[in-house]
Amino acid sequence: MEQNKTSASASTAALELYEYPFSLESCEFMEATKPSITTNPICRNYIFEYIVKGKGTLICNDKVYHLDKGDLFIIHKGSNFQYFPNASDPWSKIRFTADGILVSNLIVSYGLYDSVLIKGFNSEKLFRDMLDIWKNKGTANTMLSASMKLHEILQRAYLTQNKNIPRSNAVAIKRILDSSLYKANFSMKDITKVLGISKAQIINIFRAKYGQTPYKYFIEQRIQVSASMLLNTDMSIKEIADSLHFSDQHYYANVFKKLIGVTPNQYRKDRKQLFESLSSTEQTHA
User: Fold this and answer.
1) Could you give the C-alpha distances from 213 to 160, 173, 204, in angstroms and in order?
2) E strand or H helix at 15, and its extent?
C-alpha cells in the first residue's frame, strides 16, 4: 500500500512537470570570484536575476544596463545578451530560469514585456523563497508553488517600476489596454467609462505620448502574446486566434503576417528549426 502511495506521488510530480504551463528550469546562488563574461547569442527561456551585493554590467539586445545591489533584471526569451561583474566590486546573484506560456502571459499582463532592468527592486526574500522551492523540486506542487512565487516577483517588479510614474491619462490608458488583452468584447467605451473622457481625447492623448493609436497598440500586443503561444504551446492557429478574441483565424493570420512578416505557421516552423539547430550545435560541442 505504501509503495502505491509513493508511485502515485511520483506520477503526480511527473505529470505536473510536463503538463503544467510553467516550468522552473534552474535556480542558483552565484558569486563572482574573478572577472568573467557570460554570453548567449539567443536566450531560449526567461532569465530572472537579483543582485544580492556588488555591481555588474548587462548588454541586452545592444542596450547597456548598469546593475547594483537590490536590482532585478529580466532577460526575455529570444534576446541576445552578455554580462559581467564589476572588477572592483563583483556581484553575487540569485538566478532562476523559467519557461512556459504562463511566464509570457504574466509578463504581458504586468506590462513588463519591454522591461529589462528594475532598479531598486529590493526583495531578496522572494528570490530566496524561489531557491527553497528549487531545492524541493520533484515533489508534488513544485511548479505550482514556483509559478505563484513568480507571480509575486512580477507584481513587485510592476509596483517598483511604476511607483514614480506620474498618473497621467496616457499611462492610465496603457495600463487598461495591457490588462485587457485577454478580454472578449473589449472596446474604447470601456476606457471612456473608467477615465471619464471622450474617445477622441483618448486617441489624442495616447498618440501624443506613444506615437500610435490605442487600437494599433492593442492589436500589436495581442500579436506578440500570440507569438509566445506559438512557441510555447501546441495550440492550433484557430485556438490561439479564439483565445485572443480575433474574429477568425484568417483575420488573425493576416494581421500576424502584416506585423511580423511571416504567417503564424511559418513563424512557428522557423523558430522550431532555429532552436533545434542551436540544440544540435550545443550537443556537438559538449
Assistant:
1) 27, 11, 8
2) helix 2-19
| Sequence letter at residue 65 | Y
Residues contacting 245, CB < 8 A, separation 6+: 182, 183, 184, 185, 186
Q: Buried (b) or exposed (e) across 10-21, using 16+ Cβ within 10 A?
A: eeebeebeeebe
Does pTM top 0.70 for this prediction?
Answer: no
- The pair phi, psi for residue 78, each rounded to 5°, is 95, -10
Q: What are phi and psi of 34, to 5 degrees?
A: -155, 160
Residue percentage of the chain with pLDDT more than 90: 49
Angle between helices 249-260 and 264-285 (to 10 degrees): 60
Question: 3-state DSSP call for residue 96?
Answer: strand
